[in-house]
Structure prediction request, 151 residues.
Amino acid sequence: MKNVFKQADVKEIIDRINKLQPDTKQLWGKMSVSQMLAHCNVTYEMVYDPTKHPKPNAFAKFMLKLFVKKTVVNDKPYKQNGNTAPAFLIKDEKDFKAEKDRLVNYIQKTQQLGAAHFDNKESHSFGPLSKEEWNNLFYKHLDHHLRQFGV
Prediction:
Protein backbone atom coordinates (compact mmCIF):
# COMPACT_ATOMS: atom_id res chain seq x y z
CA MET A 1 0.00 0.00 0.00
CA LYS A 2 1.19 3.51 -0.80
CA ASN A 3 2.02 5.82 2.08
CA VAL A 4 0.24 9.18 2.39
CA PHE A 5 3.06 10.41 4.60
CA LYS A 6 5.75 9.90 1.91
CA GLN A 7 6.30 12.73 -0.54
CA ALA A 8 6.83 10.45 -3.57
CA ASP A 9 3.59 8.57 -2.92
CA VAL A 10 1.70 11.83 -2.39
CA LYS A 11 3.03 13.11 -5.71
CA GLU A 12 1.71 9.97 -7.40
CA ILE A 13 -1.72 10.42 -5.78
CA ILE A 14 -1.89 14.07 -6.84
CA ASP A 15 -0.78 13.17 -10.37
CA ARG A 16 -3.71 10.74 -10.52
CA ILE A 17 -6.10 13.42 -9.26
CA ASN A 18 -4.77 15.84 -11.88
CA LYS A 19 -5.76 13.39 -14.62
CA LEU A 20 -9.40 13.87 -13.69
CA GLN A 21 -11.53 16.26 -15.74
CA PRO A 22 -14.97 17.70 -14.95
CA ASP A 23 -16.50 15.25 -17.42
CA THR A 24 -14.59 12.12 -16.35
CA LYS A 25 -17.09 9.27 -16.10
CA GLN A 26 -17.18 6.70 -13.33
CA LEU A 27 -16.58 3.02 -14.07
CA TRP A 28 -19.05 2.06 -11.32
CA GLY A 29 -21.29 3.80 -8.81
CA LYS A 30 -23.53 6.84 -9.06
CA MET A 31 -21.38 9.84 -8.11
CA SER A 32 -20.12 12.36 -10.61
CA VAL A 33 -16.43 13.18 -10.49
CA SER A 34 -17.07 16.43 -8.59
CA GLN A 35 -19.27 14.60 -6.07
CA MET A 36 -16.53 11.98 -5.64
CA LEU A 37 -13.96 14.67 -4.89
CA ALA A 38 -16.32 16.24 -2.33
CA HIS A 39 -16.95 12.77 -0.90
CA CYS A 40 -13.19 12.20 -0.47
CA ASN A 41 -12.89 15.59 1.23
CA VAL A 42 -15.25 14.46 4.00
CA THR A 43 -12.54 12.18 5.43
CA TYR A 44 -10.24 15.18 5.79
CA GLU A 45 -12.98 17.48 7.07
CA MET A 46 -13.47 15.04 9.95
CA VAL A 47 -9.79 15.47 10.80
CA TYR A 48 -9.23 19.16 10.12
CA ASP A 49 -12.70 20.66 10.67
CA PRO A 50 -14.29 18.30 13.20
CA THR A 51 -17.18 20.65 14.01
CA LYS A 52 -18.50 20.29 10.44
CA HIS A 53 -19.61 16.69 11.10
CA PRO A 54 -21.10 15.78 14.48
CA LYS A 55 -19.25 13.00 16.26
CA PRO A 56 -21.18 9.79 16.75
CA ASN A 57 -22.59 9.24 20.23
CA ALA A 58 -20.98 6.62 22.50
CA PHE A 59 -23.21 3.78 21.32
CA ALA A 60 -22.74 4.59 17.63
CA LYS A 61 -18.97 4.92 18.11
CA PHE A 62 -18.90 1.53 19.85
CA MET A 63 -20.81 -0.03 16.94
CA LEU A 64 -18.52 1.63 14.39
CA LYS A 65 -15.45 0.35 16.20
CA LEU A 66 -16.96 -3.11 16.43
CA PHE A 67 -18.32 -3.51 12.90
CA VAL A 68 -16.73 -0.92 10.59
CA LYS A 69 -13.27 0.01 11.85
CA LYS A 70 -11.49 -3.15 10.70
CA THR A 71 -12.78 -2.75 7.14
CA VAL A 72 -11.74 0.90 7.02
CA VAL A 73 -8.23 0.61 8.49
CA ASN A 74 -7.02 -2.77 7.20
CA ASP A 75 -4.97 -3.08 4.02
CA LYS A 76 -7.61 -4.84 1.89
CA PRO A 77 -9.12 -2.73 -0.91
CA TYR A 78 -12.77 -1.76 -0.75
CA LYS A 79 -15.28 -3.61 -2.89
CA GLN A 80 -17.08 -1.74 -5.64
CA ASN A 81 -20.51 -0.30 -4.84
CA GLY A 82 -20.11 -0.63 -1.07
CA ASN A 83 -22.27 1.17 1.45
CA THR A 84 -21.44 4.75 2.34
CA ALA A 85 -21.94 6.36 5.74
CA PRO A 86 -24.56 9.15 5.70
CA ALA A 87 -21.99 11.91 6.31
CA PHE A 88 -20.21 10.86 3.11
CA LEU A 89 -23.28 10.99 0.85
CA ILE A 90 -22.98 13.88 -1.58
CA LYS A 91 -26.34 14.49 -3.22
CA ASP A 92 -25.92 17.90 -4.87
CA GLU A 93 -23.51 18.74 -7.66
CA LYS A 94 -20.22 20.30 -6.57
CA ASP A 95 -17.67 22.62 -8.16
CA PHE A 96 -15.02 20.37 -9.69
CA LYS A 97 -12.06 22.75 -9.38
CA ALA A 98 -12.90 23.83 -5.83
CA GLU A 99 -13.28 20.23 -4.62
CA LYS A 100 -10.15 19.09 -6.44
CA ASP A 101 -8.09 21.96 -4.98
CA ARG A 102 -9.42 21.27 -1.48
CA LEU A 103 -8.55 17.59 -1.77
CA VAL A 104 -5.02 18.25 -3.01
CA ASN A 105 -4.49 20.74 -0.17
CA TYR A 106 -5.73 18.24 2.43
CA ILE A 107 -3.47 15.51 1.04
CA GLN A 108 -0.45 17.82 1.09
CA LYS A 109 -1.23 19.03 4.62
CA THR A 110 -1.49 15.42 5.83
CA GLN A 111 1.87 14.51 4.28
CA GLN A 112 3.51 17.62 5.74
CA LEU A 113 2.21 16.93 9.24
CA GLY A 114 3.66 13.44 8.92
CA ALA A 115 3.07 10.02 10.39
CA ALA A 116 4.19 11.00 13.90
CA HIS A 117 1.42 13.62 14.08
CA PHE A 118 -1.19 10.95 13.37
CA ASP A 119 0.22 8.12 15.48
CA ASN A 120 -2.36 7.40 18.18
CA LYS A 121 -4.44 10.43 17.09
CA GLU A 122 -8.14 10.16 17.88
CA SER A 123 -10.29 9.62 14.82
CA HIS A 124 -13.77 11.03 14.42
CA SER A 125 -15.47 7.62 14.51
CA PHE A 126 -13.01 4.92 15.61
CA GLY A 127 -11.02 6.22 18.57
CA PRO A 128 -7.22 6.38 18.52
CA LEU A 129 -5.57 4.96 15.38
CA SER A 130 -1.97 4.04 14.73
CA LYS A 131 -0.09 5.84 11.95
CA GLU A 132 -0.48 2.68 9.83
CA GLU A 133 -4.23 2.67 10.37
CA TRP A 134 -4.43 6.35 9.45
CA ASN A 135 -2.42 5.70 6.32
CA ASN A 136 -4.70 2.82 5.32
CA LEU A 137 -7.81 4.89 6.04
CA PHE A 138 -6.58 7.80 3.89
CA TYR A 139 -4.92 5.93 1.05
CA LYS A 140 -7.39 3.10 0.63
CA HIS A 141 -10.31 5.50 0.31
CA LEU A 142 -8.53 7.74 -2.20
CA ASP A 143 -7.27 4.81 -4.26
CA HIS A 144 -10.73 3.23 -4.35
CA HIS A 145 -12.33 6.37 -5.77
CA LEU A 146 -9.50 7.20 -8.14
CA ARG A 147 -9.83 3.69 -9.57
CA GLN A 148 -13.60 4.26 -9.76
CA PHE A 149 -12.83 7.07 -12.23
CA GLY A 150 -10.12 5.20 -14.11
CA VAL A 151 -7.04 7.02 -12.81
In short: The longest strand covers residues 121-123.
